[in-house]
Design brief:
The chain is built from 17 helices and 12 strands. The protein has helices spanning 5-21, 35-41, 43-47, 68-77, 117-133, 147-156, 161-170, 174-184, 193-205, 210-223, 234-249, 255-265, 274-285, 290-305, 341-344, 356-359, 375-382, and strands at residues 25-26, 32-34, 52-54, 60-63, 85-94, 103-112, 141-146, 268-270, 313-316, 329-334, 348-352, 368-374. The strands form 2 sheets. A 9-stranded mixed β-sheet has the order 1-5-6-12-11-10-7-9-8, sandwiched between helices. A 3-stranded antiparallel β-sheet has the order 2-4-3. The longest helix is centred in the first third of the chain and has 17 residues, at 5-21. The two termini are 16 Å apart.
Length: 386
């Protein structure tokens, strides 16, 4: 399809009208955001790509790398955290990229405070699909995942907390997750010279007196003239090294758990068909997944009620987001049968992030779900030049 810039702008306005009609209110969070919030919450992938600066009073700031955190911060600043509210936005996010501009135009919507979880999930997925229709994407490919299922699996395996935390952090990062599962099973991870050196250092730390090992790391950082990395103090970095030393040691004690996780991650197929497969897996693994599977089924029913064909939606157990605040249902949408490179990229990404409000200072978790649309990728598909 070929669309002029003015026509593309009209499509954006049409999508924004859909958000309004669905009860969402326009917000425009500040471009400059406190860096420490993002350094703590966005995950390693985005953390490396932040545009950082320093404010007039010495505070570390960053250019807004996403909208979800700023919208949630604005929600918390203007009323009770648990109140129901719905927002939409239109603007730029900023991430360093090897190719293309670091200024990325996005529109999106967020729903906060609804406790009818599955219905809210379905509403937001349907709204995202309807939004793409305004751009001529009528047969999208939808892929869904469920971090709550993965977390329930880890808890059911009774793994040490350090392993649970590490596996949860890597969910969605296939290669690094596979390496960690190999270490759990006593296998050597894929390596390079730098990694071999690092693992040797971590092995030397493992089993050492924690306070002495922490002092060694802090001394090394001091000698190198490093006072902070990614917003973390030397003490925090040392703690991370000690945690990684435990993980790097690896043994056969968790080999059965590693194999169980691998089998779970292989589950993929039409969203309705995998219900039976998930139940069979839980029975074979002798892990209680009844609650998250029931929630998954209820979500599919709600999605179907919105007019979406769940048999054409793909569930992938391995699909996760490398953002630390996602908690449950996640989804991404691509253009179907598109040979354009942009068509192979994710056009929409979203999901549930119930723990974000608490991480930002609220007294308790607040139900929340939302999505972002990548306008630069849509523009390439629509043929809308500058």
């Amino acid at each position: 399809m070929t669309t002029s810039p003015s026509q593309f702008d009209a499509k954006i306005e049409a999508a924004l009208e859909l958000f309004k009609d669905a009860g969402h209110r326009y917000v425009q969070p500040p471009l400059l955001q406190p860096a420490d919030v993002f350094l703590d919450l966005v995950g390693e992938d985005i953390r490396r790509r932040l545009f950082l600066t320093t404010g007039a009073h010495g505070a570390d700031l960053c250019m807004r790398p996403d909208f979800t955190i700023p919208v949630c911060r604005e929600h918390l600043a203007n009323g009770a955290a648990s109140r129901k509210a719905a927002y939409f936005y239109n603007g730029l996010v900023f991430r360093q990229r090897s190719e293309g501009s670091g200024e990325i135009p996005q529109i999106g919507a967020e729903s906060i405070g609804r406790d009818d979880f599955e219905a809210a999930d379905a509403d937001m997925l349907a709204l995202a699909v309807s939004s793409l229709e305004t751009f001529g994407i009528s047969t999208p490919e939808i892929r869904i995942g469920d971090e709550a299922l993965f977390v329930a699996l880890l808890e059911g395996l009774s793994l040490p907390k350090v392993w649970q935390r590490r596996l949860r952090d890597l969910f969605g990062d296939g290669e690094r997750l596979a390496d960690t599962l190999n270490r759990m099973g006593g296998q050597a991870p894929s390596s390079d010279d730098n990694r071999d050196i690092r693992l040797g250092f971590l092995s030397a730390l493992n089993g050492a007196d924690p306070s002495s090992a922490k002092a060694v790391v802090e001394d090394l950082l001091s000698i190198a003239g490093i006072s902070a990395v990614g917003g973390r103090s030397p003490g925090e970095i040392a703690e991370r090294f000690l945690e990684q030393a435990t993980l790097a040691s690896g043994d056969n004690a968790h080999s059965k758990a590693a194999e169980t996780i691998r089998k779970y991650l292989e589950i993929e197929g039409p969203a309705d068909d995998v219900v039976a497969e998930l139940k069979a897996f839980a029975k074979t693994a002798k892990i209680d997944l009844d609650a998250p599977i029931a929630a998954y089924e209820a979500r599919l029913k709600a999605v179907s009620a919105k007019g979406l064909d769940v048999s054409k939606i793909t569930f992938a157990a391995s699909f996760g987001r490398r953002l630390d605040y996602y908690t449950g249902f996640i989804f991404e949408i691509h253009a179907a049968h598109n040979d354009n490179a942009a068509g192979r990229d994710q056009l929409v990404g979203g999901g549930r992030y119930d723990k974000l409000a608490r991480l930002l200072g609220a007294d308790a978790e607040v139900p929340a779900v939302g999505f972002s649309i990548w306008l630069d990728r849509l523009s390439l598909i629509c043929g809308a030049g500058a």
